[in-house]
């Protein structure tokens, strides 16, 4: 093998310029792959971490995934009469035995749980009305399931307890209403209950839908506002291991019967978009590498053409077809490997270059730069793909070389 | 000439015919026995099948009829890998064109078959290659690339490469075709020394009657058939 490597190196070195062009082609493909992946994955990872950070990992809701079966259906499962048009039941009582369920969930290892009552309300300040979602929480428990405390820019969640009818709202919502901490606004629920609420804190999550349309109040206060005394319509969970969210959600739903959604299920639309984005990205960068592979094919074909006599002499010396095939495959792989190494260096440089770009406008992420993921696995993946593509590109010319008849070549050269 | 075909032959061609798929017959019904220590010239006019016969004897080509036996072993029964192994260890080729790999030094070119066979360690292989180059007067050119050598030196380097694995049989196809008279004579001097001093068998295809006269046995072909096979006459 050492001999074949030496021969391959010599043949490639002889065609330095052609080899360099092919290697550069692969390197550019690898570099673009790495830089694009850093951009895409950086954004996606940030987005997912925001979701994981802001939203509960698992949410138990006061609804059923499927309407409960009717008594007649249960009694006569094979009956000839079908029941259609069953209207959903309005469960004003919220989650049944929420206290017991909460206690069971809190007893689980690595699980923090908090009861929540969410409901719509109209916030009115002066002549300005904004429809928002009010989340009634127990601040002590909620701090364990959500990072909203971390996102507070003014005040603290505990201030909800210290102030009668306190309200914490997003900064964007405060701007829309034109209020600040200490201002009192009117909150009117769909049931017609009106409360005067005092803004005790502001938060900024970076997610516009939350920052513009959500507010936090004490659970008891929201129960009054929504006219749903003692009702909890959600139990939110935070897990030490977020990857457990989906199986745990399935387990809880099977046990309690309440609809239970993991963060993945709640954000399935975004995650699906990411899958499509990734498919597009890998297709485009894959196409660049494919073009580079054609460059490898071209150089190996040229080498085979130019080295016809040398192939003949090597065969007459006792090299087998396999040796010859390996010799040219190695050349393709070496070109691919060199391209991969150079591409990794170029890719890393491109990432650092992108990291220096400033937009001049602060994005919701709190930075005016690209969010970039630096993941060594992307380098490995790009390099492996490049070497594989280069090796595959060399297969056809290598096979052609191995099948050359030395007699024909020597006769032709004579 | 050698002691003749009564001894166990190094190489034997038995009623060998080579016909191309298009129907052209290159050599027809040739039988030949080569003993150790023979120095044989294959002569004949252009297109008489000299080179074709050499390629058959050198296991680069397979006969369509008949068989070739190397040291008593029927080569028709061997697959491509086994034939390649035999060429590597038992045969040495010299062609009209030197076919040295241009990217590698003279020494590296001689080392290629030694390294491929893999019987010697790195130091021993290098020593063997240097000995061969020194014996052919090329020790000073060991580090040079083929393009830095003269035509005669390149052909001597090609002979050194053919001798690298200590083959029993050297097959040379018009080895002096590209050389001037002085260099051509020098190449034949080397062949003669290999036969007389080392007991190797050398088979040379040549057009040159003067050089052919320096061999011990002459096989003359016309239209792919042997028309004369006997001692070389002065």
Description:
- Chain B: One of its GO terms (molecular function) is ATP binding.
- Chain B: InterPro entries: AAA+_ATPase, ABC_transporter-like_ATP-bd, ABC_transporter-like_CS, ABC_transpr_LolD-like, MacB-like_ATP-bd, P-loop_NTPase.
- Chain B: Keywords: ATP-binding, Nucleotide-binding, Transport.
- The complex is a heterodimer of chains A (414) and B (234).
- Chain A has 414 residues and is an alpha+beta fold.
- Chain A has 2 domains: 2-51 and 270-413, no CATH class; 60-266, no CATH class.
- Chain A is 56% helix and 16% strand.
- Chain A has helices spanning 2-14, 16-54, 71-75, 98-106, 139-145, 159-162, 171-177, 208-213, 219-225, 245-256, 263-266, 268-306, 308-317, 321-356, 376-402, 406-413, and strands at 58-61, 111-125, 128-137, 152-154, 166-170, 184-188, 194-203, 214-218, 234-239, 260-262.
- Chain A has a 6-stranded mixed β-barrel, surrounded by 4 helices.
- In chain A, strand 2 (111-125) and strand 3 (128-137) form a beta hairpin.
- Chain A is elongated.
- Chain B is α/β, with parallel strands linked by helices and 234 residues long.
- In chain B, helix 5 (151-162) packs parallel to helix 6 (181-198).
- The longest helix of chain B has 18 residues, at 181-198.
- The relative contact order of chain B is 0.20.
- The interface between A and B is medium-sized, with 28 and 32 residues.
Question: Outline of this structure?
Answer:
The complex is a heterodimer of chains A (414) and B (234). Chain A has 414 residues and is an alpha+beta fold. Helices cover 56% and strands 16% of the residues of chain A.
List the helices and strands and how they pair.
The complex is a heterodimer of chains A (414) and B (234).
Chain A: H1 2-14, H2 16-54, E1 58-61, H3 71-75, H4 98-106, E2 111-125, E3 128-137, H5 139-145, E4 152-154, H6 159-162, E5 166-170, H7 171-177, E6 184-188, E7 194-203, H8 208-213, E8 214-218, H9 219-225, E9 234-239, H10 245-256, E10 260-262, H11 263-266, H12 268-306, H13 308-317, H14 321-356, H15 376-402, H16 406-413
Parallel strand pairs in A: 3-8, 5-7
Antiparallel strand pairs in A: 1-9, 1-10, 2-3, 2-6, 2-9, 4-7, 5-8, 6-7
Chain B: E1 11-19, E2 25-34, E3 39-43, H1 50-57, E4 65-70, E5 73-74, H2 80-90, E6 91-94, H3 106-117, H4 122-135, H5 151-162, E7 169-173, H6 181-198, E8 201-205, H7 209-212, E9 217-222, E10 225-231
Parallel strand pairs in B: 3-8, 3-9, 6-7, 7-8
Antiparallel strand pairs in B: 1-2, 1-4, 4-5, 9-10
Helix pairs in contact in B: 3-4, 3-5, 5-6
GO molecular function (chain B): ATP binding; ATP hydrolysis activity; transmembrane transporter activity
Pfam family, one (chain B): ABC_tran
Domain ABC transporter (chain B): 11-234
């Amino acid at each position: 093998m050492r001999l074949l490597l030496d021969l391959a190196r010599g043949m490639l070195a002889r065609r330095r310029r052609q080899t360099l062009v092919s290697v550069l082609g692969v390197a550019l493909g690898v570099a673009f792959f790495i830089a694009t992946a850093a951009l895409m994955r950086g954004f996606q990872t940030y987005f997912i971490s925001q979701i994981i950070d802001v939203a509960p990992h698992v949410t138990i809701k006061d609804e059923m995934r499927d309407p409960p079966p009717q008594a007649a259906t249960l009694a006569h499962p094979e009956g000839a009469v079908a029941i259609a048009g069953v209207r959903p039941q309005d469960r004003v009582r919220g989650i049944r035995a929420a206290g017991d369920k909460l206690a069971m969930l809190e007893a689980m290892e690595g699980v923090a749980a908090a009861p929540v009552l969410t409901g719509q309300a109209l916030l009115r300040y002066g002549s300005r009305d904004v429809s928002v979602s009010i989340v009634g929480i127990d601040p002590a428990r909620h701090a364990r399931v959500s990072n909203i405390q971390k996102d507070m820019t003014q005040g603290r969640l505990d201030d909800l307890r210290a102030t009668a009818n306190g309200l914490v709202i997003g900064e964007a919502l405060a701007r829309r209403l034109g209020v600040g901490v200490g201002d009192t606004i009117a909150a009117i629920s769909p049931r017609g209950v009106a409360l005067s609420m005092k803004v005790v804190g502001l938060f900024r999550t970076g997610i516009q839908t939350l920052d513009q349309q959500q507010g936090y109040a004490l659970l008891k206060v929201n129960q009054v506002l929504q006219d749903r005394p003692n009702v909890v319509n959600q139990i939110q969970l935070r897990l030490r291991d977020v990857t457990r969210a989906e199986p745990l959600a399935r387990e809880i739903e099977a046990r309690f019967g309440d609809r239970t959604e993991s963060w993945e299920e709640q954000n399935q639309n975004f995650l699906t978009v990411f899958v499509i984005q990734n498919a597009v990205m890998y297709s485009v960068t894959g196409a660049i590498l494919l073009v580079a592979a054609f460059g490898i094919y071209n150089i190996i074909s040229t080498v085979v053409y130019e080295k016809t006599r040398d192939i003949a002499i090597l065969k007459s010396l006792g090299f087998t077809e396999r040796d010859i095939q390996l010799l040219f495959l190695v050349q393709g792989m070496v070109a691919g490997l060199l391209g991969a190494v150079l591409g990794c260096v170029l890719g890393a440089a491109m990432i650092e270059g992108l990291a220096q770009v400033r937009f001049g406008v602060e994005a919701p992420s709190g930075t005016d730069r690209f969010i970039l993921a630096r993941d060594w696995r992307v380098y490995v993946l790009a390099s492996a793909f490049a070497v594989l593509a280069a090796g595959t590109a060399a297969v056809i010319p290598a096979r052609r070389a191995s099948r050359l008849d030395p007699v024909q070549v020597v006769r032709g050269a004579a | 000439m050698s002691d003749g075909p009564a001894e166990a032959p190094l190489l034997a061609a038995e009623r060998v015919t080579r016909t191309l798929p298009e129907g052209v017959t290159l050599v027809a019904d040739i039988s030949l026995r080569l003993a150790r220590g023979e120095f044989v010239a294959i002569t004949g006019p252009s297109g008489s099948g000299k080179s074709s016969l050499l390629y058959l004897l050198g296991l680069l080509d397979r006969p369509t009829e008949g068989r070739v036996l190397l040291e008593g072993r029927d080569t028709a029964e061997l697959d491509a890998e086994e034939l390649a192994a035999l060429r590597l260890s038992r045969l040495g080729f010299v062609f009209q064109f030197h076919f040295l790999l241009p990217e590698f030094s003279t020494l590296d070119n001689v080392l290629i078959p030694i390294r491929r066979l893999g019987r010697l360690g790195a130091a021993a292989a290098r020593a063997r290659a240097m000995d061969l180059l020194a014996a052919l007067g090329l020790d000073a050119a060991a580090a040079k690339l083929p393009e830095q050598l003269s035509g005669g030196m390149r052909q001597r380097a090609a002979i050194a490469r053919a001798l690298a694995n200590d083959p029993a049989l050297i097959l040379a196809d018009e080895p002096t075709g590209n050389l001037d008279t002085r260099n051509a004579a020098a190449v034949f001097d080397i062949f003669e020394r290999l036969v007389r001093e080392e007991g190797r068998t050398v088979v040379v295809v040549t057009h040159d009657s003067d050089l052919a006269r320096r061999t011990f046995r002459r096989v003359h072909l016309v239209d792919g058939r042997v028309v004369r096979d006997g001692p070389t006459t002065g």
